[in-house]
Write a sequence for this structure.
């Protein structure tokens, strides 16, 4: 079974509860994190270790980009929750594993279920051949310059944009995108389902050919996961930080 999970953001206990709930077996199942596995939440180190220990896969998110560029000194540190990850003995290896993630991944379908694209934030409407884009982005050296490439930034940050790929910094409900910007998914013309995270204020939703899994667990919402084979949603309520 292939499970795709929205923004974990250091909510390791909810991720662990999710794996228990779906009876995840690393020998049989795949866990795909849709970016932002780390930061903001209470335990980025535990979340990264759990993801690694079950053979986790995924796509790059803007919080991974931040963590890597802040660690290298390329970007200034903000009010983050990354100290334990940075200082852990296995921290460098975990960060290297995150750096290796692609910004865009094609998930093959099977005899009884459809394929899907996985991305953290969204797609540039000018990207017509997604397979070529995914191959080009994954082939980069994944160094600091690559992390700041405009296409990597688009895939990890977009919410609202124009048809010619101009992004807005707006991050609230999709109906409020400032004109001429619109939600990126309204410009998507492909036939393959795109599964993404990143838009916490939009929450979990199902569109014509898009599926959003960021239900703001780090802010008290549920952690949302989707089974590609069964087209099934599982949600884990946010756990009390004091318990």
């Amino acid at each position: 079974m292939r499970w795709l999970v929205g923004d974990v953001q250091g909510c390791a206990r909810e991720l662990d509860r999710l794996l228990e709930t779906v009876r995840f077996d690393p020998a049989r199942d795949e866990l795909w994190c849709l970016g932002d596995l780390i930061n903001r939440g209470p335990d980025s180190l535990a979340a990264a270790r759990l993801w690694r220990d079950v053979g986790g896969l995924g796509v790059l998110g803007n919080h991974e980009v931040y963590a890597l560029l802040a660690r290298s000194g390329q970007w200034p540190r903000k009010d983050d929750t990354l100290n334990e990850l940075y200082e852990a003995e296995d921290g460098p290896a975990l960060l290297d594993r995150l750096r290796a993630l692609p910004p865009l991944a094609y998930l093959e379908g099977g005899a009884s279920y459809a394929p899907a694209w996985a991305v953290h934030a969204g797609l540039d409407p000018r990207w017509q051949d997604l397979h070529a884009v995914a191959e080009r982005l994954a082939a980069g050296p994944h160094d600091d310059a690559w992390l700041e490439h405009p296409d990597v930034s688009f895939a990890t940050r977009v919410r609202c944009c124009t048809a010619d790929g101009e992004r807005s910094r707006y991050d609230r409900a999709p109906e409020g995108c400032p004109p001429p910007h619109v939600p990126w998914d309204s410009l998507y013309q492909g036939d393959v389902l795109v599964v993404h995270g990143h838009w916490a204020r939009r929450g979990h939703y199902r569109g014509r050919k898009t599926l959003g899994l960021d239900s703001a667990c780090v802010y008290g919402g549920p952690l949302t996961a989707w089974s590609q084979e069964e087209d099934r949603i599982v949600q884990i309520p946010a756990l009390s930080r004091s318990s």
User: Anything to note?
Assistant: The helical segments are 12-21, 44-53, 62-72, 83-87, 91-99, 130-138, 144-147, 150-157.
